Amino acid sequence: MNFIFLVTVVLTALIFVGLVVVIANAIAPRSYNPQKMEPYECGIPTRGKTWMQFHVGYYLFAILFLMFEVETVFLFPWAVVTAELGVAGLCSVLFFLFILVLGLAYAWKKGALEWK
Q: Which residue ranges run through the membrane (predicted)?
């Protein structure tokens, strides 16, 4: 019984997505301009060498920011059900925060948070 329901849902989803893609391609406005195929550079023509390397510190700082930002998002669902989880939930979140602090301490020790 559940298998039939699952197959029905998957087929319905595939048909719906396929239908939406076909309709979008059919009614989408088209413009055949040769300028559309050029790389987009904010509308400003480039001068000289356009390939620049950025310092790895920018990427490292951005990855650390995203990592800690995403991990803090996981704390919100815990805060909603904190009364239902009891001591086991509290211990789990404290362990999670401990791992976060260890990661922050490691990044700090490696100098990833310093601009040089």
A: 6-28, 56-79, 85-108
pLDDT for residue 40 is more than 80: no
The Cα–Cα gap between 97 and 15 comes to 44
Angle of helix 82-109 versus helix 56-73 axis, rounded to 10: 170
Q: What is the largest CA-CA distance in the chain?
A: 66
pLDDT digits (tens, 9 = 90+) for 57-80: 778 788 888 888 888 888 888 888
Amino acid at 96: F
Both structure tokens of 42: 């904010």
Query: 61, 112 in Cβ contact below 8 A?
Result: yes
Residue 68 burial (CB < 10 Å; 0-12/13-18/19+)?
middle
Whole-structure pTM value = 0.48
